Amino acid sequence: MIDRRGIQQRWEADGSKRDERGRRVFAASEARAAGRGGLAAVSEITGLARSTIGRGLKDLDAAPPRGRVRREGGGPRPLTARDPTLLADLERLVEPATLGDPERPLLWVSKSLDKLARALGDMGHAISPNSVRKLLVKLGFSRQLNRKTDEGAHHPDRDAQFAHINAKVVAAQAAGEPVISVDTKKKELVGAFKNGGSDYRPKGDPQRVKVHDFVDKTLGKVVPYGVYDVAANEGWVSVGITADTAEFAVHSIRTWLERMGRQRYPSAGALTITADCGGSNGARVRLWKVELQKLADETGLVVHVHHYPPGTSKWNKIEHRLFCHITQNWRGRPLTDRLAVVELIGATTTKTGLKVECALDATTYEKGVKVSAAEMATLDITGDQFHPEWNYTIKPRRSAIA
User: Fold this and answer.
1) Which among 314, 295, 315, 311 is positioned nearest to 303, based on CA atoms?
2) Dist CA 41 CA 37 (whole Å)
3) CB burial class (10 A; 0-12, 13-18, 19+) of residue 204?
């Protein structure tokens, strides 16, 4: 006699909760255990067709390959087989397009899964956002961040200038002369403002900062100008409080020379400077050259200047040997006041032995200072044979030395 009540209880407690293959195997095992008439009884109790239970009986003796539930070819046909134009329409929606093309419905919006599914629906395709995700993977698409790689148009002598700078730097170091890399770090807001990155704090107790990054009229901004000694792996940073001018830049170099440079290079007769092609120390900035002439006159040093080609500022050593470590050191720390900026920069170290000194420069530097052609004519400046606009030497003027 078939125990219909027992089969019913086992089905509700176990069999009905299994996947497709598990349900038919469960039903088949109950039918085989019940004996004669078991197939009909189990079919009635479980609601499974006799043919389904029959396939389950075959499954009891021959399990399918690992991971499969349905037999080969079972289940619904793929979306792309049922809708032949779906894949092509989806690819057309997400591929890069020319701005202003009216045929691109998602041209001016982000391509989220929901928006893609909605756009495909408007084109007559029935598809869910999750299915859109699977098809995008099939097409070779994934979410991508922007990557900084384009440096603009390359100057034809770009690589040659790199080689020229390297040769001059190696020669200066071999002669025991100082070589410095200079640049301005980006201006920083002073106050309780958010600073990029994160740092360890008690859980649930983040550093509270202002919601909006409006400049504090009292504290304002600071302008860190860096001088990196390539051979010594040492840096100097002057933290200015007014404008990033050529006068400020050269004064920072002067301060480095007084506080660090003379101690390390007491008998130096020349100074080699590598710098970007733009900014306060740009190759076309007249005031930069006038201030360097004053520095040469004061110190008696012959100043050799080499600029990196336009669009290659990231090759300047100060960027990846000093500034990046400063940014890492104060990550997640609001620059609450000027003293905090100075202390955080001065506390920057690395495993390779980087040492940094820093001081506040409270001098007011005027913007827009004009330099006349007559004043430029008084400079003792000589351009190199190779790109004299990028490579030049400023010698102390005899009248100034006398």
Assistant:
1) 295
2) 6
3) exposed
Query: How many whole angstroms from its chain centre is CA 219?
Result: 29
Q: How far apart are CA 228 and CA 292, in angstroms?
A: 17
Per-residue burial over 364-380, b = 16 or more CB atoms within 10 Å of its CB, e = otherwise: ebeeeeebeeeeeeebb
CB 346 within 8 A of CB 356: yes
User: pLDDT (tens digit, 9 = 90+) per residue, 176-233?
Assistant: 999 999 999 999 999 988 888 877 778 888 888 888 888 888 899 999 999 999 999 9
DSSP code string of 297-319 = HHH--EEEEEEPPTT-GGGSHHI
The mean pLDDT value for 262-278 works out to 95
The 8 Å CB, 24+ separation contacts for 355-359 are: 355/233, 355/234, 355/235, 356/234, 356/235, 356/236, 356/237, 356/322, 356/326, 357/234, 357/235, 357/236, 357/237, 357/259, 357/260, 358/224, 358/236, 358/237, 358/238, 358/239, 359/238, 359/239, 359/255
Structural tokens at position 49: 């067709």
Q: Classify burial at 326, counting beta carbons within 10 Å of its beta carbon; exposed 0-12, middle 13-18, buried 19 or more.
A: buried
Which residues partner with 181 through β-bridges? 228, 274
Contacts 24+ apart (CB under 8 A), 213-217: 213/189, 215/189, 216/189, 216/190, 216/191
Helices (H), 37-157: 38-46, 50-61, 79-82, 86-94, 113-122, 129-139
Note whether 311 and 278 are within 8 A (CB): no
- CA 356 to CA 235: how far, in whole Å? 5
Q: Tell me, what amino acid is at 243?
A: A
CA distance 196 to 238: 22
Distance CA 39, CA 156 (A): 84
Task: From 42, 157, 62, 394, select the one nearest 253 (Cα to Cα).
Answer: 394
Burial class of residue 390, CB neighbours in 10 A (0-12, 13-18, 19+): buried
For the ranges 51-60, 220-229, 385-394, which has the lowest average pLDDT? 51-60
- CA 360 to chain CA centroid, nearest Å: 30
Q: Which helix (H) or strand (E) holds 262?
A: helix 262-264
Burial of 350 (0-12, 13-18, 19+ CB in 10 A): middle
Number of residues assigned to the chain? 402
